[in-house]
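[audit] Reproducing an earlier prediction to check determinism. Same input, same settings, fresh worker. If the tokens differ from the archived copy the diff job will pick it up downstream; this log only records the rerun itself.
[audit] input (126 residues):
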Amino acid sequence: MPDQTTSSPNKRDNPAHWLEYLLFSEKIMIRWIRIACLLLVIIGWGIVGSLMFETDRGGLTYFNVARYALVPLAAILGALFLGARYLQDIYELPRFVSALRYLLGSMFDGPPYNIFLLSGRLLPSL
């Protein structure tokens, strides 16, 4: 099935179409690239922090990398939890878990499976 995230006139008008495709595509390979980028940021931050600040006290060890990787991991998890809380508030969902599963499904997992009406809006039932 062809990618329908952008129309063909938009491909001609937008020179940075590849960036739009990378960020907003629903293809499973693009979703795996997003996950890989997040993991690369977390591990890369840990390695860079360990190399910059721990050269005289052990350098690049697993403990030092894990210690410096906690900051971006906490930031990413915090952003996901705050985004789920925002979705729960906007769509008036009764459970936080439903909003979190919807957010994770829309970012990493794929299209939602069951659709139901909630407050006049279409949302996936997760």
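[audit] rerun output stored. Observation attached for the diff report: Confidence is low (pLDDT under 50) at residues 113-118.
[audit] end
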